[in-house]
Sequence to fold (218 residues):
Amino acid sequence: MTNILIVDDHGLFREGLGRLLDATAGFRVVGQCSSVEEAVAALASNDIDVVLLDYDLGARPGSQLFDELRNSGIQARILMVTGGLTDAVTMQVLQAGAAGIFLKHSSPEQLVIAIQQVAKGENWLDKGVLKSMLSSGKGQADNLHSSKSLTYRQSKVLRGILDGLSNKEIATKLNSSESAVKAVIQELFRKAAVRTRSQLVRIAIENHSSDWLFVEKD
Fold:
């Protein structure tokens, strides 16, 4: 069972989402909050796996919850559920440790998949967000020369991660084994000098959108 906390200052959206997820097998909504302060209190008193966090919460942006979690040592994973973010804010929340970004105009079925992936330790990045980040970052990356260029397979695995695919799904897409995909992901971690998928996504988009994401051959 995946325990979920919803943090959004729009009551109607929050309650509707809560009913939807409570009716979904494997999900349990254990709390609904409208502010960072309420979320911190709920996280301290409940066993929560995934936080669905809006960015615009009024007085304090939702991103401030990341600092609160680091200070408290709480390990819940955060999926931003938002109407939209600027590229700069997207980079900030990914750097802070967001496990994914989901746009509110997407379908409920996609949200269920996103939560499932985040709960399993995977990442979710909405394709619209990814397209925007690649578009804005390409000009910067064109001026960079990387001494750590990727092989064709590494590039394909990275694109799978950016598309929100699990290791098993990436393996199927590449006609490979899951263990081989895990090995490639570790290679990517070493090249990017990171330890998590969220950090890898941030580095790839911010610094290597042309040389890492557009490799066509070995």
